[in-house]
Amino acid sequence: MIPQRVMRFGSYRRAQSEYHMTMGIEQQFRMDDLVSVVTGSGQGIGRAIAWALADLGSDVVLNARRFADLEVAAAGIRDRGRRALIVEGDIRDFSEQLATRTMDEFGRIDVWVNNVGGSDDKTTLALLDTPDDVFRSQLELNLTSAFQGCKAAAKRMTSGGSIINISSGAGTRGSPFTGPYAAAKAGMNNLTQTLALELAPKIRVNAVAPGPVATEAFLEVLNVAKQLDEIAATIPLARLGTPDDIAAAVVYFASPASSWVTGQLLLVAGGRTQRTYNYRPQNTTTTAESVEMKAP
To answer: CA-CA to 145 of 20 to 30 Å: which in 25, 64, 75, 190?
Structure first.
């Protein structure tokens, strides 16, 4: 029973109370027939997010650069009884096309997850040793693409919606040898807070900051395959994260369960709030596909 003191503040409070009286906690996490867009969803954290959203009833639009990976992700969504749309392409300067394809197929966008991130350059360098073009590329991939995604989504969320940015603990503190990535993620955190204020009350904007999650991309960029036990030992909960750990946090922000939450950064890092393992500089450079690093 809702106390009378909660009900006396007018129709809005009454409507809110009636909503929660008729919807149990489990139902607040349901996303039946909503439409979610997840960038960088061909593998790793992005794919786990896409599958988690489908588990709760959402149709999902998938985006990445490798079509074969997207086919695997799409099959998992369809196995969960939901519709999947594949939109292949590099997300940089592509968010408008992605949003248009989504509207053409589904007629709505309810959730947009800016998951793409990482580095085209598979090295870790001190900031002063970082070439200007590498720094610019990191900002474009990790910050500008998210800004473009937020704009494309917000313009089409005419009935409201939720935008979730996948940030990193690296963006909350000094980050030796991953400085450009950390600077971009710090910008993403401010972008999240600013948009949350500008787009309220219709659209909510939040961010999730993963700790170390041993995806293929994480291992490739940071070259730490042999140090995983050492990294895990620095984490209070004594293990590395999994893609599902991050997906669970995204589900909360995407669903009605977080309807009174916006402008927040949720650190999902096993209790580690400070970097207690420093990644080592590397001296070799290779050009490769953009990868998700997501490492504080």
So the answer is: 75
